[in-house]
Specification:
about 290 residues, alpha/beta, Rossmann fold, 6-stranded parallel sheet, 3-stranded parallel sheet, about 40% helix, globular, binds NADPH dihydro-nicotinamide-adenine-dinucleotide phosphate, multifunctional enzyme, EC 1.5.1.5, hydrolase, Bifunctional protein FolD, EC 3.5.4.9
Amino acid sequence: MSATVIDGRAFAAKVREQVGEHVTRLKEAHGITPGLAVVLVGEDPASEVYVRSKGKMTLEVGMKSVEHKLSAQTGQQELLDLIDALNNDPEIHGILVQLPLPDHLDEDLVINSIAPAKDVDGFHVSNVGLLGTGQKSMVPCTPLGCLMMLRAHHGSLSGMNAVVIGRSNIVGKPMAQLLLGDSCTVTIAHSRTKDLPEVVRRADIVVAAVGRPEMVPGDWIKPGATVIDVGINRIERDGKKKLVGDADYDSCAAVAGAITPVPGGVGPMTIACLLANTVTACCRANGLEEPE
Ligand code: NDP
C-alpha cells in the first residue's frame, strides 16, 4: 500500500484564497480591514522566519499587518503595555505574541494579558476553557489546520480511534479536544506512556506532535491509518540540512492510508488558520457573519 499524500500547501492556498475573498467583502461592504499584530521579542532566527512569512501572507490576503520587534532585554511591563495598547486599538483584530519568549518574561502572564477576543493563537486561558467546554472560542492554529485536513480527507471522524502523541498546550491538548469534539475516541500519549507502539497501533488517526525527528516508524502504524505529522525538526543528513517530521515518512507512507509530508503538510496550514482566525475575530468584533 502507498499512502495518499495530504497536500497541506495546496489546502492552505485554498484557505488563504477564501480568507482573501472574505477580506474583500469586509472592505467593500463594510469598509473594514482586518488587522493582525505580531509581537516578536528577541532575535531567535526560526521565530524571525515565521514572523516574516506571517506578515507577508497577512498582506497578501489584503489584511493590515503590524509587526512589533522588541529587543531581547524588553521588560515585562513594557511588553504588557504594548499588548494593552494593541488590545485597545480598534484597527487590530488579532494579536499574536511569537513564542518562545526570553526566559525573564512570564509567558502565561503575557498570553493571558491579550484580550481573549483578539487572541488569534487561542492560547489564552479563557479560550482554552471555551474550547474544552465545546463553546465558541479562538482555536489554536496548528491543531485547527490538522482538523481541517482530517475532515477534508475523511468527511466524518465520528467513532474513529485517534492517538495524539504529545500533550503540549499549543498542539497536543487542543488537538485532542478538537478530535473529541468531532466524536473520536481520543488517547493522548506522552513521554511516560507505556508501550507507545501498541497504543499507536490501535489508532485510525495518529497525530505526531513530539519534536523528535522521525520517531514514529511505519511498524507502529495500523495499515490504512491516517498520519498527521506536526513535527518540524531540522537535522543534518549526508552533510545536508534537512527538515523532517516526527514520523519516519517513508516507512509510515508504505503502511498508512494517508499522510502529511514535512515540509508541505501541517506547517502551511498553521499560517492559513492564523489568517482565518483573524478574519473570524474581526467579524465577531463587528457583529458580522463569520466565515465557516
Ligand atoms: P513540546 O516539546 O512542547 O511537547 C512535546 C510533547 O511530546 C510532550 O508532551 C512530550 O511528553 C512528548 N514526548 C517527548 N518525547 C516523547 C517520547 N519519546 N514519547 C512520547 N512522547 C514524547 O512540543 P510542541 O507540542 O510545541 O511541538 C511538537 C512538534 O511540533 C515540534 O517538532 C514542533 O516544532 C512542531 N510544531 C509544528 C508546528 C507547525 O506549524 N507545523 C507548530 C507548533 C509546533 P511530556 O509532556 O511527557 O514531556
